[in-house]
Amino acid sequence: MDKMPKWADIVLIPLISLLLAAFFSALVILAIGENPIEALNLMIDGALMRSAGWGYTLYYATNFIFTGLAVSVAFHARLFNIGGEGQAMLGGLGVALVCLYIPWPHWSLSILGASVGAALFGALWALIPAYLQAKRGSHIVITTIMFNFIAAALLNYVLVEMLRPVGAMDPASAKFPDATHLPSFQDMFSTAETPLFRGAPANVTFFLSLAACLLVWVLIWKTRLGYEIRAFGQSETAAKYAGISPVRITVIAMLISGALAGMMSVNTTMGESERLILNSTEGAGFIGIAVALMGRNHPFGVLLAAVLFGFLYQGGAELALWTSIPRELIVVIQALVILFTGALDNMVRHPLEKLFIALRRRNA
Amino acid sequence: MDFLTLLQVLDTSVRLATPLLLACLAGLYSERSGVVDIGLEGKMLAAAFFAAAFAFYSGNAWVGLLAGVGASIVLSIIHGLASVTFRGNQLISGVAINFLAAGMTVLAAQSWFRQGGRTPPLEGAARFNPIELPFAIGPNDAAAAERPLSQLIAEAGPFQQFYSELISGHSILVYLALLTVPATWWLLFRTRFGLRLRAVGENPAAVDTAGISVVWLRYGAILICGILCGVAGAYLSSALQAGFVKDMTAGRGFIALAALIFAKWRPVYALWACLLFGLFQALELRPDIIENLTGMKVQVQLLGALPYILTVVILAGFVGKAIPPRASGEPYIKER
User: Fold this and answer.
1) pLDDT at residue A1 in the model
2) How does it sit in the membrane (chain A) (predicted)?
3) In A34, A128, A191, B148, which residue has its Cα 20 to 30 A from A228's Cα atom?
4) What's the maximum distance between 2 C-alpha atoms anywhere in chain A?
5) Between the CA of residue B319 and those of A145, B250, B263, B322, what are the distances in Å?
């Protein structure tokens, strides 16, 4: 049954896929007339060698942890939730409503309220596709794609027609009250002598995302529900035979997934912009797919992959600032990671499996 | 609303429906053969860029079209490698292709033209210009009479208005796209290749047993899909608009996917679905018309979201049932 040792499956294959993605990215950089080594140095300098760089890297990573966990929880139930983007948009709406209409005395309470609002709205947005998949057999990938577009239209409508303050031009809500301001890393770790994370948007939500990693790990591997989700994902017929209701698992897995995607907005909407803007998600919902694939659907893997993508995002911004490489390079790298770790997984896996079988024969 | 305004709206609908129709038929070939393709958007986008870039360099829209089709085919082959040869997840491959196109087009546009991710505007023969059908009132008549075209058409009789405004004056790709519908119907339902293509999407094992290669059939379908997406992309950048701008497909690949489901994977229904969605897009541009017609203020956002909402309703099975080809999305594994 086991063609390969476990470490090869968990470490070697993602590593080779990642190297392939990196190799092709380097080719792309070469093709547009820049030096890939210099580009990498610049990215490391800008993203990791200064505390402010880390502040941005971890801010982006926070988003990707949430969306990556969202995709991976759904993956465990063999559901492809491509609607993280829409769920995160709706999550932002939940955050905005909670922050604008409830008078919070202190940020520590407001972040709890905003998390509940974000999770609730995100989960609700995932509920309809989940229900349609479970009850009526509509393909969840198509419905969640459609719901991304519907979410964008809905958010546009709500911002322009309802939440926009009178007289304002840009489609955005009013600024949240000061009591909902989340402490940034600068607030938390800087002292008078050594200013740290100056101006960076990383904030206390990062720790919330770490807690989410832990909770998802407990949920998937230590609870009955998690066992049922995994069993359902492995084999629907076997799960049914064991008395697991496919409708229940599909709906619950998608609700959790939607809630996680929605909570990303606590970081962007409450932690950074402090008001609801039209494009606060910036494609993070889709990056969750790459993060989940690379992290092999394990919360710890998701954490590592999210930090890597945070680094790529911040490094990419630095590149756009100092060289003629546009930010879209990150989109290409993201595509290559999805391609090699997701779609072309077998291209790496099959030769490796053959190699390990051959090695075993020789040793035997 | 008067007759001429109606004609104008329908005229815009046809223009906007054309890329949807081409992409929708592209998806139809792919999905009928059992390969789900959510990468239509990416293929169109890549084709739009390469078509505009090569049309600009050569000054010839047909050269651009070829380049666009070539770019689209390259992405198709990647999708084929991932989903047929290496039997990977077709949805994930489609997602990757969409991002690859979104990123690469901007990167290449910036590197070649340095205009912030766009190509220079296309002029003259670098674009597919409107064709004036015989006996229609067109710009030449207007020049001869030294009066504006809109005035001439307004004075003509209703049939001439219908003919000149709606039927005549589109680029050749519009007529080509419309011809693709009967051609697709014929190919799918009246030829041996079509029978095999449909069979491989329903029951690949049976096709394999009959001694026909599942792999080659699917690659064939993917190739046709690439060609049609390429034409759709070229139409966007060198006929509908004059040049490539970043993310110019703007979700059309997904609307085409929606139309495909709406049409229940049938070519003639696909035409009606795409015309309907084209009409929504045309009305999105002219909300004043609906307001005059119904006397109510209409939300533009709602019109924009209507194709997606309708697709969800169809998928939910409330208005007829949309059943995809049975083997679509599943890689075929030959038993050993």
Assistant:
1) 45
2) Multi-pass membrane protein
3) A128
4) 79
5) 20, 27, 12, 9
Q: Which residue has the tokens 């038993």?
A: B335
pLDDT score, position B320? 64
Mean pLDDT of B88-114: 91
Rounded CA-CA distance A266/A206 in Å is 10
**pLDDT at residue A164, rounded to an integer:** 87
Give the DSSP H or E segment for A252: helix A246-265
- Of B233, B226, B230, B214, the C-alpha closest to B78 is B226
Q: Among candidates B16, B23, B20, which has minimal Cα distance to B230? A: B23
d(CA A317, CA A328): 10
Question: Structure tokens of A11?
Answer: 């470490």
Using CA atoms of B191, B197, B199, B201 in order, give the dihedral in degrees to the nearest 10: -150
Judging contacts by C-beta atoms under 8 Å, the chain B residues touching residue A293 are: 92
In this prediction, residues A157-176 reach a mean pLDDT of: 86
A334 vs B contacts (CB less than 8 Å): 99, 103
Q: Residue A246: is it exposed, middle or buried by C-beta count within 10 angstroms (0-12/13-18/19+)?
A: middle
First-to-final CA distance of chain B:
66
In terms of Cα–Cα distance, which of A268, A281, A273, A278 is closest to A209?
A268
What's this model's pTM, rounded to 2 decimal places?
0.90
Residue B202 has a pLDDT of 92
Has residue A294 got a pLDDT over 70?
yes
pLDDT > 50? residue B264: yes
CA–CA distance, A59 with A197 (Å, rounded to integer):
11
Question: Pick the residue with more confidence: B126 or B68?
Answer: B68
Written as one string, the DSSP assignment of B249-271 is: TTTHHHHHHHHHHHTTT-HHHHH
| Angstrom distances, CA of residue A76 to CA of A230, A232, A344, B94 | 5, 8, 19, 20
B92/A338 CB distance under 8 A: yes
Q: How large is the average pLDDT for residues B292-300?
A: 74
CA–CA separation, A247 vs A240, rounded Å?
Answer: 10
The CATH number of B3-127+140-315 is which of 2.160.10, 3.30.1760, 1.10.287, 1.10.3470?
1.10.3470
Distance CA B198, CA A142 (A): 22
Across all residues in chain B, what is the average pLDDT? 88
Please return the burial class of B171, using the count of CB atoms within 10 Å of its CB with bins 0-12, 13-18 and 19+: buried
- Looking at chain B from residue 225 to 284, which residues have their Cβ under 8 Å from any Cβ of chain A? 251, 254, 257-258, 261
Q: Give Cα separations from B335 to A267, B196, B205, B290 (angstroms).
A: 49, 20, 9, 58
* Closest approach of B169 to chain A, Cα-based (Å): 32
- From residue A157, alpha-carbon distances to A84, A359, B80, B139, B254 in Å are 20, 61, 39, 40, 21
- pLDDT value at residue B135: 79
Distance of alpha carbon B44 from alpha carbon B50, whole angstroms: 10
Question: Which residues share a beta bridge with A184?
Answer: A203
Predicted-complex ipTM score: 0.89
CB A311 within 8 Å of CB A294: no
Distances in whole angstroms, Cα of residue A199 to Cα of each of A56, A181, A188, B33, B267:
9, 15, 12, 53, 56
Domain ranges of chain B: 3-127+140-315
- Distance, in angstroms, between A71 CA and closest chain B CA? 12
Cα nearest neighbour of B88 on chain A: A343
Cβ atoms within 10 Å of A219's Cβ, excluding its own: 18
B100 touches chain A (CB under 8 A): yes
